[in-house]
Write a structure and sequence with these properties.
With 446 residues, the chain is an alpha/beta fold. It folds into two domains: 4-98, no CATH class; 221-445. It has a 24-stranded mixed β-sheet that branches.
């Protein structure tokens, strides 16, 4: 069945052409007399008037033809543009397929070429950026055993034992790949992701100097899935991601997340950090999950902002844990967490419920000037080192029922705070522990 629009245009064109031929012929006199209202002419005057009428008809016809030409030219241009776009999409699909295929090649230079090809493709095609970020993330999730030489500075024995035990549970890596070359490929994949997730901003003063990423190279709105990935000296400083999943990931070496921003959920559950974990100044817009995480070195969260619930339940901090000045807008869950080194929560702000029930503080625990706007639960917690709550502010009652003190502890809150008390300890404003270690026979439950 014919297109009604095309049929109407064809009929209109035929009628217009017929009318034009008629006006250029005998119809000119009729137009002159009945439309222009000119009569009584003869001789040269009549001939000049008829020629003028025919000239106007030709002008109108020429203008109409020009409009029709422009219309069809625009349609042809639009068709050509669509054809070109389809061709480009076909070329992009072909380039994407070839680049993705290169990632599976046995030779490291070919894999590197595939990564760079994917990067260029994503840079030129915003619609493909999430897909390519997913492909690069999937590559990093592939099984990998770092070379033995990676067991180097500041690797404590506990981290080494845990690492090798974990390797024994992982699938064997792809055969034929040199681990040293694969390390370079993975570092390149990590750098590509980080470079394009870092917006056009300079780090605050005091941070390690870094060149600003050009604005047109930033890929906004990316969701990362690095579940179970092996990440080497991972540098995510000042990066932005809509959401990120690092569950069960193995961070080999330093892990830097200073100033990073996660707009939605950030999940690190059961991840393992063999080196220092640096989250100072990071911002978590959604839930931050650090449950069952193993920190084998220092964990730095100073000044971090948790805008939703933060969960560190059963996390293991083998080194120092620094949360000084951190802000917890939602609930802060540290139930059954183990702090092997110093636990620093000085000046931290807990706007929601703070749950430290059953936590183990093997080193010093410092909560000086911390603010607890809601309930603070320390029931069943064990403090074996110096414990300091001086000038901590408890707006509501703080629960220390069945908490165990095995060393000196001092408790004090800011003046003017009403009903700030601890179960079994007494009013926080007056209860103190001696600065000297308690005698063995006096140690026990508070």
């Amino acid at each position: 069945m014919r297109d009604p629009a095309k049929l109407a245009l064809t009929v209109a064109g035929l009628v217009f052409l017929t009318g034009l031929v008629w006006v250029l012929g005998p119809g000119a006199l009729w137009v002159l007399e009945h439309i222009d209202g000119v009569g009584g002419l003869a001789g040269k005057d009549l001939a000049a008037a008829i020629d003028a009428t025919r000239g106007r008809a030709l002008t109108v016809a020429t203008g109409t033809a020009a409009l029709v030409a422009v219309y069809y030219t625009a349609r042809n241009a639009d068709t050509a543009r669509r054809t070109f776009q389809l061709g480009e999409r076909g070329h992009d699909t072909d380039r994407y397929g070839k680049a993705a295929e290169q990632l599976g090649h046995a030779q490291a230079p070919v894999r590197l070429a595939g990564l760079y090809a994917l990067e260029r493709l994503a840079q030129n095609n915003p619609a493909l950026r999430q897909t390519i970020a997913d492909v690069i993330s999937a590559y990093l999730r592939m099984p990998y055993h770092p070379p033995r030489e990676e067991e180097r500075l500041r690797r404590i024995r506990a981290a080494q034992r845990a690492y090798h035990a974990r390797l024994a549970r992982r699938p064997a890596p792809t055969q034929g790949r040199d681990p040293h070359e694969e390390r370079q490929v993975r570092l390149t994949a990590q750098r590509i992701l980080a470079d394009h997730l870092r917006p056009h901003v300079l780090p605050p003063r005091g941070r390690r100097a870094r060149a600003a990423t050009p604005a047109d190279r930033f890929w906004p709105g990316i969701r990362l899935d690095l579940t179970g990935a092996t990440l080497i000296d991972f540098d995510f400083q000042d990066c932005r991601a809509t959401s990120a999943r690092f569950s069960d990931a193995l961070f080999w070496g330093d892990a830097v997340f200073r100033g990073a921003r996660f707009e939605q959920e950030a999940e690190f559950g059961a991840a393992e950090f063999t080196g220092p974990a640096r989250f100072g100044g990071a911002e978590f817009g959604g839930r931050a999950g650090f449950g069952d995480v193993a920190f084998h070195d220092d964990a730095e969260f100073g000044g971090a902002e948790f805008l939703d619930n933060a969960w560190f339940g059963k996390a293991r901090f083998s080194g120092d844990a620094g949360f000084g000045g951190a802000g917890f807008a939602g609930g802060a869950g540290f139930a059954e967490a183990e702090f092997g080194g110093r636990a620093a929560f000085g000046e931290a702000k807990f706007a929601g419920r703070a749950d430290f029930q059953g936590a183990m503080f093997s080193g010093s625990a410092r909560f000086g000037k911390a603010g607890f706007a809601q309930s603070a639960e320390f029931g069943g917690a064990v403090f074996t080192g110096r414990t300091d709550f001086e000038e901590a502010e408890f707006v509501r009652a703080a629960g220390f029922g069945a908490a165990t003190l095995l060393s000196d502890a001092r408790f004090q809150v800011r003046r003017g705070v009403e009903q700030a008390a601890t179960d079994g300890v007494g009013p926080m404003s007056t209860a103190h522990r001696s600065p000297e270690p308690l005698p063995e026979e006096e140690r026990g439950q508070v």
